[in-house]
């Protein structure tokens, strides 16, 4: 029997309109007009609450196996379901072993079995000396690779220098998969550090000065040169500095296959508003100025930035060093899976962006990056019925019970935001509804990515 999920605002690739999703056996049979709903369909009428494609987050640190006390598949996918995400792509570091070999990928898949409320896949890692593992990882189904041009904070996932990168790029280009790059270079950071030896590390201004724009700009210029030489797909993760946008714009106009993401914390917070000792707001690259934030929004409007990812990067609370408030000692990362959509929608409402923009930035574009846009990211006939019901007008205060991930700490606590996820559906079945996580585990490892 078909189910009809009805709304005055269904967000489709052709725009937002009154429609019904006809769902049968876990798939969208049709997206039809309200007068075309079959008489025998079971109706679920959500009125003016919007129906959007399930969100896809291509930048998540789940940390399992090995550091499940930081997060884990059960808690990360619980937060994802509450936040409207139906697909997560896990980063290959912070877990043990790091996902730099097929054996490590298989260990991760075993660890996830029976735990996931939403679907997931894992990026492979490109690190110093693992070139021979890159093509086997592609054949094993990773959707792409992640590398760091600077120390990533965990010893087991090594940064990769230019020589090592050039040794890896022929295999990456041959795979056809994207290379996701943490684009900061050590040189500008080391030069900045020389002038901060006696600085106050409780001051956010000190931390901001320690990660200058030049670190991002120089890294991105290097990657553009290598992209031109090796013709691989390049993706810049968590762009913070808008000073790099002109280089990226020029390179893309040249036809280079480059995509760019930013994150909700760069679009919401501003350096001028961060108090001394507020280490919950430490991330790398750093949150920059208010003017920089508004320039990021302008770049989203004109298409210079393609997508918004969370960079959900949790840790045990003590690692944020709230006891000392020292930014140099605190772990860099902000957890946000369950609240990223309301945070972004709150900012969108202030700037007259639409639900179509949300669907493009947070569903379709990340699905294309991960090579799963034939499975996820749009409400299209034949696709799996992964969608969310979202009340764009309701407001709520972010409290610990809204977070759902393992450690309920957040720099967003106490803020009032707009937009409530009423329900998240995976293959036509609810995994989250009206504030409650559904007990059935329905998520799965995405099979055959790029195979």
UniProtKB/TrEMBL annotation:
Pfam families linked:
Amidohydro_1
Q: Which domain of life is it from?
A: Bacteria
Which InterPro entries does the annotation name? Allantoinase, Amidohydro-rel, DHOase/Allantoinase_Hydrolase, Metal-dep_hydrolase_composite, Metal_Hydrolase
Enzyme Commission code: 3.5.2.5
Q: What are the GO MF terms of this UniProt record?
A: allantoinase activity; cobalt ion binding; zinc ion binding
Which pathway does this polypeptide act in? Nitrogen metabolism; (S)-allantoin degradation; allantoate from (S)-allantoin: step 1/1
Q: Which UniProt keywords apply?
A: Hydrolase, Metal-binding, Zinc
Key word Transport present = no
Annotated Gene Ontology cellular components are: cytoplasm
Identify the residues that the record assigns to the Amidohydrolase-related domain, covering every copy.
51-431
GO biological processes: allantoin catabolic process; purine nucleobase catabolic process
Oligomer and partners: Homotetramer.
Protein name, as recorded: allantoinase
């Amino acid at each position: 029997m078909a189910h009809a999920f009805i709304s005055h605002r269904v967000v489709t690739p052709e725009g937002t309109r009154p429609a019904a999703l006809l769902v049968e056996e876990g798939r969208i049979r049709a997206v039809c007009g309200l007068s075309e709903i079959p008489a025998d369909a079971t109706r679920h009428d959500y009125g003016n609450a919007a129906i959007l494609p399930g969100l896809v987050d291509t930048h998540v640190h789940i940390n399992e196996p090995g550091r499940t006390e930081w997060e884990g598949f059960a808690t990360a996918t619980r937060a994802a379901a509450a936040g409207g995400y139906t697909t997560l792509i896990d980063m290959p570091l912070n877990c043990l072993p790091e996902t730099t070999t097929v054996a490590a990928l298989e260990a991760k898949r075993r660890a996830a079995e029976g735990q996931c409320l939403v679907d997931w896949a894992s990026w492979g890692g490109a690190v110093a000396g693992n070139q021979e593992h890159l093509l086997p990882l592609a054949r094993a189904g990773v959707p792409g690779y992640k590398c760091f041009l600077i120390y990533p904070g965990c010893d087991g996932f090594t940064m990769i220098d230019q020589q090592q990168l050039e040794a890896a790029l022929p295999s990456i280009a041959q795979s056809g998969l994207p290379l996701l790059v943490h684009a900061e270079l050590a040189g500008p950071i080391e030069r900045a550090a020389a002038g901060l030896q006696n600085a106050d590390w409780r001051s956010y201004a000190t931390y901001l000065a320690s990660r200058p724009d030049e670190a991002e700009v120089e890294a991105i210029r290097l990657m553009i040169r290598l992209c031109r030489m090796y013709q691989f797909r390049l993706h810049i993760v968590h762009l913070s500095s808008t000073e790099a946008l002109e280089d990226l714009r020029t390179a893309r106009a040249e036809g280079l296959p480059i995509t760019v993401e930013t994150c909700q914390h760069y679009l919401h917070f501003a350096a001028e508003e961060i108090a001394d000792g507020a280490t919950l707001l430490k991330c790398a690259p750093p949150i920059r100025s208010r003017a920089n934030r508004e320039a990021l929004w302008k770049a989203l409007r004109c298409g210079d930035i393609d997508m918004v990812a969370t960079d959900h990067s949790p840790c045990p609370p003590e690692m944020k060093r709230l006891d000392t408030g020292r930014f140099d000692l605190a772990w860099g990362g902000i957890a946000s899976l369950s609240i990223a959509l309301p945070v972004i929608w709150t900012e969108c409402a202030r700037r007259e962006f639409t639900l179509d923009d949300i669907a493009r930035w947070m569903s379709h574009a990340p699905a294309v990056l991960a090579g799963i846009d034939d499975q996820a990211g749009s409400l299209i006939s034949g696709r799996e019925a992964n969608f969310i019901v979202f009340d764009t007008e309701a407001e709520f205060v972010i409290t610990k019970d809204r977070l759902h991930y393992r450690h309920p700490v957040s720099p967003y606590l106490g803020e009032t935001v707009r937009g409530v996820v009423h329900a998240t559906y995976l293959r036509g079945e609810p995994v989250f509804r009206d504030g409650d996580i559904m007990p059935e585990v329905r998520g799965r490892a995405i099979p055959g990515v790029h195979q």
